[in-house]
Amino acid sequence: MKKNKKDNIEEPEEVRMPENNAAGAEQPAAEASDEKAAEDPLADALRRAVEAEDKYLRLAAEFDNYRRRTAKEKLDLVKSAGEDILKGILPVLDDCERAIKQLEATEASTFEKEGTGLIYNKLRSYMKSCGLEEMEVVGQDFDTDFCEAVAQIPVEDPAQKGKVIEVIQKGYTLNGKVVRFAKVVIGQ
Asked: 3-class DSSP state for residue 151?
């Protein structure tokens, strides 16, 4: 018996049958298949064991990849679960800001100003607790990843060229992802 060093399995040595030259006849096919069948059970079992181990390892790796992928998808889903709702509330937040500016410009009572300011602050703090952040872009270089240019105005100062001069509509990010681009005016 030969010893296979790789798998520590003893393999049978090849058995050679004496050739029958005297009669000149060839060995019948039935006898050849019987010899092969005598050798095959061990080799066949070894081959099947290797194939089964390979299948098992591939299946385990595939399942591990599936588990990681679904965990990542669940985490992403939880992070962005309220994105549509928060996007829908953004116009209300904009209206509150406009109302506060309008109340400050007119001779409104302090109760109206305080009440509107209170509602605005509660709404803004709730949205901030959900991960919504306001983008600060005034004075920074124009970046198409965060801003949308709606107008360009000529500037005298060369340092202002290509920079955000004014924000028309605020932009917001939710957990680092842009949910609304800032609409801005840039210097030309």
From this structure: strand
